[in-house]
Automatic annotation (TrEMBL), chain A:
<feature type="transmembrane region" description="Helical">
    <location>
        <begin position="83"/>
        <end position="101"/>
    </location>
</feature>
<feature type="transmembrane region" description="Helical">
    <location>
        <begin position="107"/>
        <end position="129"/>
    </location>
</feature>
<keyword id="KW-0812">Transmembrane</keyword>
<dbReference type="GO" id="GO:0022857">
    <property type="term" value="F:transmembrane transporter activity"/>
</dbReference>
<feature type="transmembrane region" description="Helical">
    <location>
        <begin position="20"/>
        <end position="39"/>
    </location>
</feature>
<feature type="transmembrane region" description="Helical">
    <location>
        <begin position="179"/>
        <end position="200"/>
    </location>
</feature>
<protein>
    <submittedName>
        <fullName>Sugar ABC transporter permease</fullName>
    </submittedName>
</protein>
<feature type="transmembrane region" description="Helical">
    <location>
        <begin position="51"/>
        <end position="76"/>
    </location>
</feature>
<feature type="transmembrane region" description="Helical">
    <location>
        <begin position="261"/>
        <end position="282"/>
    </location>
</feature>
UniProtKB/TrEMBL annotation, chain B:
<keyword id="KW-0677">Repeat</keyword>
<dbReference type="GO" id="GO:0005524">
    <property type="term" value="F:ATP binding"/>
</dbReference>
<feature type="domain" description="ABC transporter">
    <location>
        <begin position="8"/>
        <end position="251"/>
    </location>
</feature>
<dbReference type="InterPro" id="IPR003439">
    <property type="entry name" value="ABC_transporter-like_ATP-bd"/>
</dbReference>
<dbReference type="Pfam" id="PF00005">
    <property type="entry name" value="ABC_tran"/>
</dbReference>
<dbReference type="InterPro" id="IPR050107">
    <property type="entry name" value="ABC_carbohydrate_import_ATPase"/>
</dbReference>
<dbReference type="InterPro" id="IPR003593">
    <property type="entry name" value="AAA+_ATPase"/>
</dbReference>
<feature type="domain" description="ABC transporter">
    <location>
        <begin position="266"/>
        <end position="509"/>
    </location>
</feature>
<dbReference type="GO" id="GO:0016887">
    <property type="term" value="F:ATP hydrolysis activity"/>
</dbReference>
């Protein structure tokens, strides 16, 4: 359809058709909204050897969400969903903190590592349970993961005896509240997890097999993919990500709150995945998209505070923005509003000019 | 005969997909009261033309005129309102609802917000009756065979105009491959209904890969090739050889060659041996032996257990009796993995639901089976992968030859080739092909049959299932005959075996 003189529009179209274009556009727009309210929004300054600024805070506060959403992406790509991540966040935090608080010396590295290990193992066990129910027992993912979503918070409360456990451990504080090389340490954790996930899915064949299972489960079975194994693995990985997020949240507050830690984070995570361009139906997924999606949500939360939306209308405002974002992402909506019609009319008369008798083969550009 | 004005005229139709020009300036016209065949190879643009006509795809150029007025068809619903109804190969109805409900879904007559159930049943019965069909409209659709469901779909489409109050009625009825899974009697029933509608003045656009059916029912045909119009002919003026030459753009020698092709005569030792293999509700226990390099054809009516037999040999369904031995070793067959590990490959008859992953690219679909057998930890190195994929795209002539294309956008024949490539890459010992030529055109059919012959020459065993007996007869060393979910006979192919002999065996159900 592109004539030689139309390279600029063609390039523009190639850009707008990139699967990350709309998530990035929304993120940039949201960031810009803040500028009139806080003119130094993009400023980053150095104090006490640490970098400070709104952008740094967004990444810092968004870290747990990014982690959870990255794990959720793989689950959703297999055609599933994991509602239990919030509860897993709470369980991990509760176990780790209660173990640390029992230590004589809360700053002992060995104890802290062991505590984190216990928390993460518990998280992975939760994932194994989810995967077992979904893949082995054939229970609908939304129901299977609902069990831990509901029961998990009860378990977390049991672990903490219904109290909020507070700890005072310097090494543990580092994960969610510390700094390293002038940046919040959690940013490095997130970067590492994202890098590992990308490597795990794209450097091995795991990504392809996940997309195949989500794209057509029966065909995948008949092609010999052990989809049961893959699904269980993915649920375990998702829970592991939620567990790391749980460490981060409890470390940041130096406390484990079985009731409120990671509350509703599963919904934000699902939203982040969808904004990032991964379909809830399963199949193709994009880790990069999910990271941007999570940043969009965190930026939105920050924006709500900076432009001073009254607390009681917070959620309504958030909902309105989310609706707009989702509509912008829908090709159907864009075609209706921004008028794909106009473009079609321009190109239509040019087409019959192609000599029909030249009988072009099915030509493949690129 | 003075030519009446066409009811539908499409002029200079252009349609492009990313990387592919599917239609370039195609003209097409349809007269009232005629049955018009749309012919062409896979990827010639038949489906695209139909989808443009029925509003599934927006057109990129050209005009559509209906009853002399230019129309813009933006959606399937608009097409229906304009009087263009479509029935696709797969019946898009709700099997759990009654026939009457299916006919009226989405346009139920209501009074004060309540649905008039009585009126629905009465009107549905009248519509069915008027078209000369004997169907109980209160029974659930699923209680009828696929063929009747298809007739119901037609009743639903043509009944639309009468009941929506606009009085436009169906002017154009599009039937896309309606006969591909029907048996002979069912086809006749369908043809009766089509003739009746034609005599009422409906223009019918008919797509089928069965040339005999085209010559039986159609008045006129339009031939497409590579997205361009090749010609429009009265059926009576163009014989089958001429038609095929128009469709594939070259003389028939290539096809003839196949007929003279000698089957490999010396088949080797036993490769696969099934003893007492069976599954309740699937197929009665059977014994079967497939030798190395042998093509074993399965003949039988639709539903006779051909597919069920193949699925048991692949572990797609679990057998509840018997055992399978492959090269002397017993294979458990509890899942496809077991069979794949032993060197069995299976191309399902349902390309879309059991074969392809439509969202993935051609390349990803091709390497899927090989990758699955290697496990996720050992990805195929990129260079080796690209080389393999390029080799098979070229060998099987997959079009477009773009490994990055999404497989869902390919035509049926090319999708079938992608599936074949997927399994050939794993170098199986036994290749099971369930209806590999269904819904694809003559050219691709010949290519696939030739491929089967050459694979067998190279020592691969093939289990070949096809509805067309000629195909089975032409390719097979041995023909297994099925009837009523039982393997009733195994005939060694030879000069005395003819299609009528096979038919007799099917009919009598015993080895003669």
């Amino acid at each position: 359809m592109s004539t030689p003189s139309a390279t600029t529009p063609a390039r523009w179209r190639a850009l707008t058709h990139h699967h990350l274009f709309w998530p990035v556009a929304v993120l940039v727009a949201l960031l810009l909204v803040n500028v009139p309210f806080t003119p130094d929004f993009f400023a980053i300054r150095m104090a006490d050897g640490h970098l400070y600024g709104s952008l740094v805070s967004i990444v810092l506060f968004g870290s747990p969400l990014i982690l959870v959403a990255v794990g959720m992406t793989l689950v959703i790509a297999t055609g599933g969903i994991d509602l239990s991540v919030g509860a897993v966040v709470a369980i991990t935090g509760a176990l780790t903190c209660s173990y640390i608080s029992d230590q004589a010396d809360q700053n002992a590295l060995a104890g802290v590592f062991l505590a984190m290990g216990i928390g993460l193992v518990a998280a992975v066990v939760c994932g194994l349970w989810n995967g077992f129910l979904v893949a082995r027992m054939g229970i609908q993912p939304i129901i299977a993961t609902l069990i831990i979503m509901v029961a998990g918070r009860g378990v977390a409360q049991l672990i903490t005896d219904g109290q909020i456990i507070t700890i005072n451990s310097e090494p543990y504080k580092l994960i969610g509240g510390g700094y390293w090389l002038t940046l919040p340490f959690s940013i490095f954790v997130v970067a590492a997890v994202v890098a590992v996930t990308v490597a795990l899915t794209r450097r091995t064949a795991l990504g392809l097999l996940v997309e195949s299972v989500g794209g057509n489960a029966e065909a995948s079975r008949l092609v010999g993919i052990r989809s049961m194994r893959i699904k269980i693995m993915v649920y375990m990985f998702c829970a592991l990500c939620a567990g790391i997020a749980g460490l981060m949240i409890s470390s940041n507050t130096s406390a484990a709150d079985g009731n409120n830690a990671g509350l509703w984070i599963e919904l934000d995570a699902i939203l982040a995945v969808v904004i990032g361009g991964t379909s809830l139906l399963g199949g193709r997924f994009s880790i990069g998209g999910t990271v941007i999606g999570a940043l969009v949500i965190q930026t939105l939360t920050t924006t709500i505070y900076t432009i001073g939306v009254p607390t009681q209308t917070n959620l309504v405002f958030k909902a309105a923005v989310v609706i707009v974002v989702c509509l912008l992402q829908s090709p159907k909506f864009r075609a209706k509003v921004f008028g794909a019609k106009g473009r079609a009319r321009v190109t239509a008369p040019a087409e019959p000019a192609t000599p029909a008798d030249a009988a072009p083969k099915m030509e493949v550009s690129r | 005969m003075a030519e009446p004005r066409p009811v539908l005229e499409m002029t200079g139709i252009v349609k492009e997909f990313p990387g592919v020009r599917a239609l370039s300036g195609v003209d097409f016209r349809l007269f009232p009261g005629e049955i018009h065949a749309l012919m062409g190879e896979n990827g010639a643009g038949k489906s695209t033309l139909i989808k443009v006509l029925t509003g599934v795809h927006p057109l990129d150029g050209g005009t559509i005129t209906l009853d002399g007025k230019a129309v813009r068809i933006g959606s399937p619903l608009q097409a229906q309102h304009a009087g263009i109804s479509t029935v696709y190969q797969e019946v898009n109805l709700c099997p759990n609802l009654s026939v009457a409900e299916n006919i009226f879904i989405g346009r139920e007559p209501t009074r004060a917000g309540r649905i008039q159930w009585k009126q629905i049943r009465k009107q549905a019965a009248e519509m069915v009756d008027r078209l000369g069909l004997d169907i109980d409209v209160t029974a659930p659709l699923s209680s009828y065979p696929l063929a009747v469901q298809q007739l119901v779909a037609i009743v639903r489409s043509v009944g639309h105009g009468d009941s929506d109050g606009e009085g436009s009625g169906t002017k154009v009825l599009v039937l896309d491959e309606p006969t591909s899974s029907l048996d002979r009697d069912e086809v006749l029933e369908l043809f009766r209904l089509m003739r009746r509608l034609r005599d009422e003045g409906v223009a019918i656009l008919f797509v089928s890969h069965f040339l005999d059916q085209i010559y039986e029912i159609c008045d006129r045909m339009t031939v497409l090739r590579n997205g361009t119009l090749v010609g429009e002919h009265m059926v009576a003026d163009l014989d089958q050889v001429g038609l095929i030459e128009l469709m594939i753009g070259k003389a028939l020698d290539q096809l003839e060659e196949l007929h003279e092709h000698q089957l490999r005569s010396d088949v080797g030792e036993t490769l696969v041996k099934a003893e007492g293999l069976g599954r309740t509700g699937g197929i009665a226990p059977f014994d079967l032996e497939i030798k190395k390099g042998e093509v074993l054809g399965l003949a039988g009516l639709l539903g006779s257990g051909r597919t069920e037999l193949a699925r048991l040999l692949f572990g797609a369904d679990q057998p509840d009796s018997g055992k399978v031995t492959i090269v002397g070793k017993q294979v458990p067959m509890s899942a496809p993995n077991d069979a794949i590990g032993a060197g069995v490959a299976f191309c399902s008859e349902n390309r879309k639901t059991e074969g392809l992953v439509p969202d993935l690219t051609v390349r990803e679909n091709i390497i899927l089976a090989l990758q699955a057998s290697r496990g996720w930890t050992r990805p195929i190195p990129a260079s080796q992968r690209d080389e393999l994929v390029a080799k098979y795209i070229k060998a099987l002539d997959i079009r477009p030859a773009n490994p990055e294309a999404r497989v869902g956008q390919l035509s049926g024949g090319n999708q079938q080739k992608v599936l074949l490539a997927r399994w050939l890459i794993t170098q199986p010992k036994l290749l099971i092909l369930d209806e590999p030529t269904r819904g694809i055109d003559v050219g691709a059919k010949a290519e696939i049959q030739k491929l089967v012959v050459s694979l067998s020459e190279d020592g691969m065993s093939v289990l070949y299932i096809a509805a067309e007996l000629e195909e089975v007869l032409r390719l097979s060393h041995t023909i297994g005959v099925l009837r009523d979910r039982k393997l009733v006979a195994q005939l060694t192919n030879g000069p005395e075996i003819t299609t009528s002999r096979i038919l007799e065996t099917i009919a009598s159900g015993e080895h003669q």
